[in-house]
Amino acid sequence: MFRNYLDIVNNGRTEELRKGRKDILSILSSVLEAIDPYRITFNYLKNRDFSDCDDIYLLAFGKASLRMAEGAIDAVDIKEGIVITTENRKVEKDNIRTFQGDHPIPTERNIEATEEALKMIERCKEKDMLIVLISGGGSSLLCKPRIPLEDMQKLTELLLKCGADIKEINTLRKHLSYVKGGQLLRFVKCNVLSCIISDVVGDPVDSIASGPTAPDTSTFHDAREILIKYDLWNKVPSSVRDIIQKGLNGQIEETPKAGDRIFQRVENVIIANNELACRAAKRKAEELGYRAEIISSTLTGDARVAGKKLVEYLSSKSRGDVIVSGGETTVKVRGKGKGGRNQEMVLSVIDKLEKDMLFVSFATDGVDGNSDAAGAVADGYTRIRAEEMGLDFRKYLENNDSYHFFKELGDLLITGKTGTNVMDVQIGMRC
Question: Which of 205, 231, 384, 429 has the greatest number of CB atoms lying within 10 Å of its CB?
Fold first, then answer.
């Protein structure tokens, strides 16, 4: 699972830390096994009754879409399907078309894939069933914007850098789209079953992949307030302000809300989430002989602040204790370095780790920020090792350059894209 497994294990300065590092990698591997999209989707759909449906159509989009689609195909007889993925491979079925898109910044091929999906949906008759498989990254991949693509790209870049959380980002996406925020259902005549792998804290179905099949709880007013909050109202393209203002004036219809008749024919089901990942981590830690505790599966806020609180709690524990947490934090980008919220969280606490402590933060999709790493691991000797190599962790932290710091130390977590996403998992251990 980890391409640099031996390096990570052998970087432990003591026998206890080497064993702890090995065990942490085993725990993280068990997390990925527990949230495998194929198995979760297959098991859920295999136990559903579709006897009342004529034909079944499939639409899958997100980082887990390929494996979810393969699970669905093996569980249910699909007449036609479309998969929009970030991966460079296809579903091996003649009646399933696979489109590769881009994330997190949408491109023209995302729009083209979405247009093909809408054409397929138009072929669904009233007594058919549309199975929609939704996972993290879907907001970018299912893309039919009300504004020019280049303006959507600029807005997305601004939102990703300003410190806005995913719910805030998706509020803007929904109100600048024809398909997000429940609006996909405006194109559908048949019943819809949405199976969702959640990558949003608290599993709000209206925020995951911008809730294309869910009632929207946000408004055009909310979208405007978010831009004002982050001082972006006058920095975004004029087309963004124009659409939001038209929405506020009633010239553009609001996204569908709870109680709208179109939701009478849709069922939204969470089939995997961060809580499932945290439970798997706890279970594996206990199998390995540790006393394990889940602190939270809804961790939010600044990555540096959250990391310090976790390590502070870990300091109160005893040898053989493991703490598990999960969620999605944010980073205020101040520098020009490389990394992501997981690596930054770990870097921010290396001066707080006692000699017998291990701490890791891991992106379950295998991609942390703008890097090819999934996260990083540190222990009580990490700062000492860095100083011996002439590395000042504070300078790397100031430049948001956690990637190059941990690359020098050989403590990046390298998995490649995992094909799933339930946000992040942190593990703290006293060896």
Answer: 429
